[in-house]
Amino acid sequence: MSSSQPTNPQQLCENLLSEGKRYNIEHRILTSENVVADRLLARGIELQDAYEELHDKLYAYSPAALQVFLGLVLSTAAFWNPEKMQEARAARCDLANVNQHIAKLAAELGALLEQRSDLHNTSGFSSDTHYHVCDVIEAASQHNYLFQSYLQKKLGALRCQFDLKYWPSLGALLQELASDAEKAVMEATDPMTAAATSATRSSRADFFKALFAAIEENGAKNYGPLPAGFKPSDRTLASLANCALDLGPDEMVDDAYIKRLRQRERSGT
Q1: Who is most buried in 45, 122, 154, 202, counting CB within 10 A?
Q2: With left for phi above 0 and alpha for psi between -120 and 50, is residue 223 left, alpha or beta?
Q3: Overall domain count for the chain
Q4: Does residue 93 sit within a domain?
Q5: Are 136 and 65 found together in one domain?
Q6: pLDDT tens digits, 13-32
Q7: Contact predicate 213/80, CB 8 Å
Q8: Mean pLDDT on 103-114
Q9: Residue-by-residue DSSP string for 82-120
């Protein structure tokens, strides 16, 4: 925080936003969060009551808690907004399609590798191609200095110690890749994305679901800096969202919207 003591909750919150933005600029990071910070700073009048509530619930508990919560608002609006979550849903579908494509092609390639192995053994001809899994590993790692320095000799020793019957065939490796891709289950890699994409279609609710998850992740129950039981009011959440997401007059949400959303979340509908 700056050396001059803020005189009111709004000034305190805006100082934290400005200092966070200045840090990001100096370190050339999180440009998208700076965009959100600018929105909040530009619409400070709309956030006066929200800042007073956050000051009462967080700053009195711990100055760091207020800074962390404001950071959660910035990051959620920057990375878990409805547009980003629409992209995430599309990426989830792409990942599922890619896995199915991999499963199909790997199975086909595995069958071809087994067929080539049979031909090598029965046709009287060979094609001087890889037949041992170690051949493939070594060839694929020829430009990997760490492999060559630390693993290559040990792998070679294992290959000499155990003959071919102890190793999987190339065809078996591809069949395993096919099986692995075919049964893959899509999972979000963080609680915020999981919460924000729980619905089929993207909406403004994505932001709030991600923010609820972020608050829980940073709460005292999970050894985070936010106080146990911290719960911003519906009106404060609506004001923060309207400004952070830069919602226009026809898009803005109110406390009644947040109340309905929370009820749906509790009931699991």
Answers
A1: 202
A2: left
A3: 2
A4: no
A5: no
A6: 999 999 999 999 999 999 99
A7: no
A8: 97
A9: HHHHHHHHHHHHHHHHHHHHHHHHHHHHHHHHHHHHHHH
Rounded CA separation 2/181 (Å): 53
Q: What is the pLDDT of residue 3?
A: 46
Q: Which residue has the tokens 């053994």?
A: 121
Q: What is the mean pLDDT of residues 192-203?
A: 94
Tally of residues, the chain = 269
In terms of domains, do 153 and 22 share one?
no
Both 78 and 203 in one domain: the answer is: yes
189 assigned to some structural domain: no
pLDDT at residue number 60: 84
Show the DSSP H helices in the chain as ranges: 9-27, 31-42, 48-54, 63-79, 82-122, 133-140, 145-146, 152-161, 170-182, 191-196, 205-217, 234-244, 255-267
Domain boundary residue, one of 182, 207, 231: 182
Tokens of 45: 């009048």
Q: What mean pLDDT is predicted for residues 198-216?
A: 95
Q: How far is CA 30 from CA 13, 34, 75, 225, in A?
A: 19, 7, 9, 22
pLDDT of amino acid 4: 56
- Asked whether the beta carbons of 121 and 132 are under 8 A apart, the reply is no
Q: Is the pLDDT of residue 121 over 70?
A: yes
User: What is the span of the domain harbouring residue 72?
Assistant: 9-84+194-267
What mean pLDDT is predicted for residues 175-195?
A: 96
Residue 3 resides in a domain: no
pLDDT at 266: 86
Q: How far apart are CA 162 and CA 179, in angstroms?
A: 26
**Running DSSP on this structure, what letter comes out for residue 166?**
G
What number is the average pLDDT over the span 134-147? 96
100 near 181, Cβ under 8 Å?
yes
| Residue 188 included in any domain | no
Q: Using the 3D structure, point to which of 155, 182, 209 is the last residue of a domain.
A: 182
